[in-house]
Amino acid sequence: MRLQNKIIATLIAEGVEDLEYYIPLMRLQEEGAKVLSAGMDLKPIRGKNGLVITPDATIESLKANELFALILPGGWAPDKIRRYDVVKNLVQEMDKANKVIGIICHGGSIAISAGIIKQGQKATGSVGIKDDLLNAGAVWADEAAFREGNQVWGRVVADIPDFNRELIKALVEG
Questions:
Q1: Residue 135: which residues within 8 A CB-CB, separation 6 or more?
Q2: Model confidence at 174, in pLDDT bands (50, 70, 90)?
Q3: Catalytic residue positions?
Q4: Is 145 in contact with 153 (CB distance < 8 Å)?
Q5: Angle 61-63-69 (CA atoms, 0-180°, nearest 5)?
Q6: Distance of alpha carbon 112 from alpha carbon 137, whole angstroms
Q7: Beta-bridge partners for 52
Q8: How many angstroms separate the CA atoms of 57 and 60, rounded?
Q9: Do 124 and 105 contact (CB within 8 A), yes or no?
Q10: Tens of pLDDT, residues 90-112
Q11: What is the pTM of this model?
């Protein structure tokens, strides 16, 4: 229970990749974290593979200074919520505070729109956003998972075990 009572938010919307949402959520809960599922509103959403998720909070209600970390799962959801200032502002505030941001698959789209990709930094995700990451100044790394500063990157669903290991390691190290 190394993350007892730490509050971690996961940003969700219609079409979130169910496995990239649920598996890290359960792993974080195993460590004692309180994980908030945050959407644009509190209406239940359906994941990419059909699972229904009811948000615990709105993204607008989240405060970076109250969160220990932030998770950006993939699927189609990142493309939907990356357009909102409230999402971009939260991601920017978390990054500026050097708090851990877990980014997997298409979650990198949100990081791009929030402008937190630093020139020359290592990044990964679905090959579908490879060009976007490169155009944002990242150096593409075809690796399962790794940590780059306060950001923990994961490539795709098959890499969730590696992503979870890197994420927990980053969170425990503080």
A1: none
A2: confident
A3: 105-106
A4: yes
A5: 115
A6: 9
A7: 46
A8: 8
A9: no
A10: 999 999 999 999 999 999 999 99
A11: 0.98
At 137, phi and psi to the nearest 5? 105, 0
Q: Which tokens is 122 given?
A: 């290592």
CA-CA-CA-CA torsion sign (94, 20, 164, 28): positive
- Whose tokens are 């990044």? That residue is 123
Domains annotated for the chain, with CATH where assigned, are 7-173 (3.40.50.880)
Residue 3, phi then psi, degrees to nearest 5: -115, 30
DSSP strand pairing (145-148 vs 151-154): antiparallel
**Token pair belonging to 134:** 């490169």
Order of strands, sheet of 7-11, starting from the edge strand that comes earlier in the sequence: 57-58, 34-39, 7-11, 69-72, 100-104, 151-154, 145-148
Q: CA of 153: how far to CAs of 4, 56, 92, 169, in Å? A: 23, 25, 16, 13
Q: How many CB atoms lie within 10 A of CB 66?
A: 10
**Residue keyed to tokens 């979870």:** 164
